[in-house]
Amino acid sequence: MKKMTGILATAILAGGLLAGCVSQEGASGNSEKETSGGGGNEKLKIAVVPKLMGIPYFNASEKGAIQAGKDLGVETIYTGPTEPDAAQQVKVIEDLISQDVDVIAVAPNDAASLSPVLQKAKDEGIIVMDWDTPADQSLVELSVHQIDDEAYGRHIAKSLVKQMGVEKGQIAILTGGLSAANLNTWIDAAKKELEENYPGIELVSDKIATDEKQQVAYQKTLDLIKSNPELKGIMAFSTPAPLGAAQAVQEKGLQDDITVVGTALPKDSSPYLNDGSLDVAILWEPDKLGYLTVALAKRLAEGEKPEDGLKVENVGEIDVWEDGKTIIMGPPTDFTKDNAADFNF
């Protein structure tokens, strides 16, 4: 292993702290690797990099990833940028490379921007995966998806129309960052569903970025309401966006006039679901996604790829596509005012 000392190590550590936050869990267990010098054993180091730290969705994923480290006897490092920024993610990954981790699993803010640093990681002998959001598929060993992206996007579009109660009217689409590959894939699938099956639905604009911030989504929705008095529905992608949209609808008292559906956590959604400003939150269990990512990373580091139908403890049975690389955790869940209280995330 390469050990960095003195001024260089201090500089890199400082850069990593500026770029993002870190959660680290070392757990005792039997899963160990030989050091390059052959003079002893140490735990596998698995790094999980979210788009950003500090929002509820990635906080829930972090809990799952850390728990997997404890259960499986590996050292889990959960670290990412403090803003949804590709340049910050690059700095985080550079720091992880210097730590000689065994696996880096990343949810890119901008896949293309991360390709050079992920190639560098591979050149250093580090296994590269993506999770939550696809990276450059030529660089990753596994691509861990929450759901079937096409089916998920179409389901969100169908849910919007169902909740609207009519198959015509003006709608808008909110997203997180414009370069987020997973959000763009879902939006494309949702638009395809509308174009193919609901010709009476009219988009008032192209997708609107909210920078993964509820306050931005709130303000953008207020702007939409003001400029589009006939607006009937909003699809919001990225977990803060539906909350911001619902907040604006709630403030204006338009629960009966504007339908909002989107990708949000049940606990955060409950106040808006209860008064009808958010009609349905559609997601999965992000703690399980974090757990699955670490579990599969451990298998890869031990030279074992997952097979279709593998049952992962604390997650369930997974689907592995024919490419042997794409992993599907399972179908999404619709959270409503009737069931949101049943979930603790």
TrEMBL record:
InterPro entries: Bact_Solute-Bind_Prot2, Peripla_BP_I, SBP_2_dom. GO terms for cellular component: outer membrane-bounded periplasmic space. Residues 1-19 form the signal peptide. GO terms for molecular function: carbohydrate binding. It is found in: Cell envelope. Keywords: Signal. SUPFAM superfamilies: Periplasmic binding protein-like I (SSF53822). It holds the Pfam family Peripla_BP_4. Its main location: other. Residues 46-305 form the Periplasmic binding protein domain. It comes from the Bacteria. Belongs to the bacterial solute-binding protein 2 family. This is Autoinducer 2 ABC transporter substrate-binding protein.
